[in-house]
Amino acid sequence: MRRILAVIAGGLCIAAASDPAERLADPTQEAAAREIFEEVRCLVCQNESINDSDAELARDLRRVVREQVAAGRDPAQVKAFLTDRYGEYVLLKPAFSLGNAVLWLGPFAAVLAGLAFLALRVRRRDLAETLTVDEEARLARLLEDRDA
Amino acid sequence: MTAELGAFALALALALSIGQTALGLFGARRPALAGAASGASLGAFLCVTAAFAALMVAFVTSDFSVANVAANSNTAKPMLYKVAGAWGSHEGSMLLWCMALTGYGAAVAAFGRDLPLALRSRVIGVQGVLGVMFLAYTVFASNPLARLLDPPVEGRSLNPLLQDPALVLHPPFLYLGYVGFSVVFSFAVAALIGGRIDAAWARWVRPWTLAAWSMLTVGITLGSFWAYYELGWGGWWFWDPVENASFMPWLIGTALLHSAVVTEKRGALSGWTLFLALAAFTFSMLGAFLVRSGVLTSVHAFAVDPTRGALLLAILGAASGAGFALFAWRAPALQPGGLFAPVSRESLIVLNNIILTAATATVLLGTLYPLIREAMDGEAVSVGPPYFNLTFTPLMAVAFLILPFGPLTAWKRGDLGAAGQRLMLAAAAAIIFALATFALVSPRKALAAAGVALGFWLVFGALAEVAERTRAFRAPAAEVWRRLVGLPRGAWGMTLAHLGLGLFTLGAVFETAWKIEAAEALSLGGRIEVGAYSLTLDSVRTGEGPNYIAERGHVTVTHGGRVICEARPERRFYPTGKQTTSEVALCNRGLDQIYIVLGERRAGEGGRPAWLVRGYFNPWVQLIFLGPLLMAVGGLVSLSDRRLRLAAGRKAA
Fold first, then answer.
1. What distance lies between CA B59 and its chain's CA centroid?
2. Which candidate among B251, B298, B330, B620 keeps its CA 20 to 30 Å from the CA of B415?
3. Residue ranges in B142-238 assigned as alpha helix (H)
4. C-beta of residue B9 within 8 angstroms of C-beta of residue B51
């Protein structure tokens, strides 16, 4: 039942960040805050950023982020502030860290593995295209016949 | 009584599937048994259909003694959604899944008369195995026709967000797609049992892949469109686990479509094509597991307990495990197919496959990584859209760059220089459009302009290929016309699909980069500006719907002083579930859309009531949905190609 409720709560999240009552007066600061919102998870929602969520907690987090931006903190500092309190879970973009190496390098490893596989096959194909010992011998004999 | 008949039909379908399995697998060398297997598969399909009809009747008549109806329907619900309620819940949608599964089995029996007997019999047999597993799961663990001892007077109703025409069609298309890959899976297993895979096999597999892929494309697009206008803020893709679950089989299916062409035309890559054929349905089953087990948090997960999830995982493990084990055992013995040079259409398709597979792996990794990390060191992490934008998107950009070269490069040994020459015009046009975009569209965005170049590159690349095939601009008009009319449907299908991809790219880039958003609390007569459009809130009236009460707004949209649209966004309250939803209003302006949302009421200036009104200007957004639809149409046009419908044996001439 709780899950159903969560789904409903998730559904209701309606572009909350644009609410004029919450906005910062300075448009550049507001834009900076909005960019950060996109990367911060609404912790009680089902996989939504605080930019999109109308949940109470998302509202609070937006207020915190806006306050920090207004106080002149840069995005990295704001994110550090959030992860100190809520853990890495709060960031929708996982940090580039050793613990997340698999995640960030995985896609590139997959491409490289594919290319290596292809290269290997092409090489093997080349081998297949070269003649076998028997064929070499036969070819030599044919050439000899022609020369003779 | 109807529900009991339905439950009985479902059990009968399970029994018939068991028969179908045994008869099909042993019937490979005995025509009589093979015929009986076909009969059993038809019977199983009819029985599941009967069960489904029974469930639908229970929904239509609001028979709350059926547990599933009581939990998901309500007398006040409009008829369309009563009917659709039959597949709106976990149990009902499993029944729909089974109907598609047995339906595809019956279709192989009905349309596969030209297949060699042994292959057909085995395909039907393997399809039977899958049917047994999923039907047993439905009958014993998720029976939608189970009765309640103490039926309630009124039901609980479907989530109002799901009461929407797009969502009525979304699951059937999606399931026809997911489950369509089961046929491909069965073909692969049957070929591995028989130990033979050749061009003819690939030709039989292609139509099924095309059908499944087209359906899945439509299903995903409908879902995306629903999210776009129903969730109320214009997002159309969230990289949500459930969306990813549907996207992975699509990506693998796309790779399979291409590699199967190579296997059919050149006899090469047969092992790889088999592998993809097994993988596509594996990802379908993985999706079913992810959505229904509750292991991942998602906006659209079904409410289901972990035990049922474990059972689905067991089915996935058994079916795919057996398939891939068979592959590991038999594939090395397959005849290596035709040779090709490093520069050839084959190689380009292999590159396409590498990228699509890596992209699938990326989506899988991103989706499952929170689970992996938690198992590794107990740390909870989130993987959201920013991750996919940084990994998946560049991969696709590379694939799009290569794409137009493929159709213009010869099989076996190609000449990239020649292909490049033919694409010169397309490349020039794409760059000019991108430069124009960069210069004219504000705010200036270099990366988005590059995306625009990529989109036009795909569009013009597809057109260049048609021009090349018809010798346009080089031959006399009459000959060009003759060639144009004579192009096979398969070629048109490919062109349409690639064109659709280009249009989608353009839409996605424009919408993402140049969307404009505005929100303000407006009293009656108040106005907000959204880009060049101005929105005036004229009136808000309360009204009543069949199962909700609504505030109906009237917003006039003007552009340069001229009225272009009278929009009527609504805010609805559903008393049964105590839920509020928002019905957005969309105004079309060519490919653009103005998207208007009526929000909550709050106190405005001077104590007058005000409403939070949001407006979005979404440039070229329609291409995001039209592009994929064009791709699906391309798939269906390809499917109608005579060559694919003819038996390969007969076509040998």
1. 27
2. B251
3. 165-194, 199-230
4. yes
- Asked whether the beta carbons of B66 and B50 are under 8 A apart, the reply is no
A89 touches chain B (CB under 8 A): yes
Instruction: Considering only the beta carbons, identify the residue of A14, A47, A107 that sits closest to B391.
Output: A107
Single-letter amino acid, residue B617:
F
State both tokens at B548.
Answer: 């909700």
Weakest-pLDDT range from B374-383, B525-534, B549-558: B374-383
Of A14, A92, A103, which has the smallest distance from its Cβ to B233's Cβ? A14
**Banded model confidence at residue B650, pLDDT cuts 50, 70, 90:** very low
pTM, to two decimals: 0.91
Which residues of chain A fall short of a pLDDT of 50? 1-14, 127
pLDDT tens-digit map of B388-405: 999 999 999 999 999 999
Strand segments (E) across chain A: none
**A4 and chain B in contact, CB less than 8 A:** yes
Q: Which two tokens stand for residue B563?
A: 């009225």
Cα B544-B549-B555 angle, rounded to 5 deg: 85
3 state SS of B607: helix
Is residue A117 left, alpha or beta, with left meaning phi > 0 and alpha meaning psi from -120 to 50?
Answer: alpha
Q: Which pLDDT does position A12 carry in this prediction?
A: 42
Q: Quick count: other Cβ atoms within 10 Å of Cβ B471?
A: 13
Domain locations in chain B as residue ranges: 2-398, 423-511, 516-618
Do the Cβ atoms of A75 and A32 come closer than 8 Å? yes
Fold category of B516-618 in CATH: Tick-borne Encephalitis virus Glycoprotein; domain 1 (2.60.98)
DSSP per position, B262-318: HHHHHS--HHHHHHHHHHHHHHHHHHHHHHHH-SS--TT-----HHHHHHHHHHHHH
Question: Does the beta carbon of B306 lie under 8 angstroms from any beta carbon of chain A?
Answer: no
A27 part of contact set with chain B, CB < 8 Å: no
Q: How far is CA B379 from CA A48, A90, A100, B369, in A?
A: 19, 12, 11, 11
Kind and range of the H or E run holding B105: helix B90-111
Per the CB < 8 Å rule, is A15 touching B369? no
